[in-house]
């Protein structure tokens, strides 16, 4: 129906009269018929409900009459309400005026009351000034500061002055100025007489007089002067490191003991100004100590000596026939070297104390600085200005980049910063020289030729009775411990100085020095094997030294990482990352040590182990065959000569080598022995004939040899015997169950050695 209505809506009489198409005319006719039917239905509904419609019309007519009657009754009331509303508006306006007047009156009464109170305070202030009661006068001046500006600007203010010729502002200003002068004089006198109670009293009065900066600066000067007494040493000849330590400990003690006092009277964050002044004082005094240190210890002359010394030449291991002696003719005597080492020790201690002092100040200042980040006005009052910093720095320093860091609350780029850079460069020069010199001396004084327990040589005759080394054989020489002691000590010094440049430089020096140590050990291990005990000692001890050096290296790196993370906790992420990377770079030496050790063992294998294992294999296979009858198989199973011979000679070999080598080194040597054995065994076994029983015995022999060598190496050697195990499986399986799936062609070729298979074919 709705669709028909929509369609009828667009029909127009003009369109209908102009339509000529029959189909369109029929469509319009049908639409009109539908509309006619709809209208007839609506008319029928209206006729059917006529009674109810008439009744509702009658009700509406009656209701209209009642509404008209009600309107006549309400009209007088409406007029009364309109008149009342007009009167209420007038009354409301008067009430608002009265409220405004009341507020003005209350404000005037309050101003008069405050003016009267101000007059009383001014009178009391003048009385206190005449009586020289500084505490009461300062309290009254502070209370005057809490007076509202409306009162001070009111017309009643002239009546507040005890003397009408002088306005209250001038009275307060003059009194404040006089009180500041009095308190300053009292503070100076108290400092002169060392009256700590009076000093604290005057320090408390400055903020009441609105002179916060003056009070903090005066108190800071007092604390700086107090540091002199705390750092005074009874002995004249004392190390400069101790002087720096006393200086920084005194400043730290002053900061901790006066922190709460400043915060109590001045508020949170104001102690930063005192810390900044103490930081500048500490920097100034530390620079003086470093200047005297540089002059008295003749640091420049020592640096020139180090630069002229030729300490970069390669180390030459001492000849066996020549007694080990330090050949360090670099122009620096042992006395001079001891002096350089003592200077280095002082430099390290000074650098450590400077770093610790910076960490302490930052730990105290940074939390206070963060409180002031959202209060620029207070921050401006608390922080030292560029002009104030300039007055505290000597003109000779030429420092104009100093400013206060908002994040840490400390002065950045103080005069100590440039001295720390000088100290770091001096440290690196001294440390690298001492590392090279000490390691060169450690190598030249190596006691390899003097080690005990190496009197008897390793015998290549395995038929003779093996003579093991005497008890208490020393397996490593002194150089490995000395070299890594020097390396660890130098790197601990670098971490203690807490400068990334120092750690990087020393780590690079250690890399080069230990690399030279590895080269010397590898060179010694490459000597041609001989029956003499001295040659064997140098070769085997060098292998042990390389093994132990790797252990020392890993332990050193792990301990340095822990130390760096602990001592550099407050350093920036970038600085800590540089330090960690420098320490981690030392781990590259581990692979170099392992490569050198493996290369040395390979050389030892070609010279010694391969002939030994070939001899053992040949002797063990004497009169051994793998084409067995049932009776022969049972006899061999009960009395296996191959296994007995092999185990006996391996034990003889182990009896000689195990006491002379470290456990891990001996395990690598045994593994190399396995490589030599397996290679020769595979070649020999390809030329042997088998039947199934012989193959089973060969498989047992392989398992036994593997187990025997694994006991010697105290490890797993399964991978080395994998190919032999495959060969043994092929020759040990029954003829009708032989499977060659997954094995290579060389192993499959072993089937040609099966005599029983050839007979069946």
Report the helical percentage.
over 70%
User: How far apart are the termini?
Assistant: 102 Å
Radius of gyration: 52 Å
- Strand count: 2
Q: Uncertain regions: pLDDT < 50 for 5+ in a row?
A: 311-327
Biggest sheet character: 2 strands, antiparallel
Query: Looking across the biggest beta sheet, what order are the strands in?
Result: 1-2
Question: Can you give the mean pLDDT?
Answer: 82
Globular, elongated, flat, extended or rod-shaped: what is the shape?
flat
Strand content: under 5%
Can you count the helices? 28
Order of helices and strands: HHHHHHHHHHHHHHHEEHHHHHHHHHHHHH
Q: Care to describe what's here?
A:
- This protein is mainly alpha-helical and 761 residues long.
- 73% of the residues lie in helices and 1% in strands.
- It is built from 28 helices and 2 strands.
- A two-stranded antiparallel sheet has the order 1-2.
- α4 packs antiparallel against α5, α5 packs across α7 and α13 packs antiparallel against α16.
- The longest helix is centred in the N-terminal third of the chain and has 81 residues.
- The protein is flat.
- About 2% of the residues have low confidence.
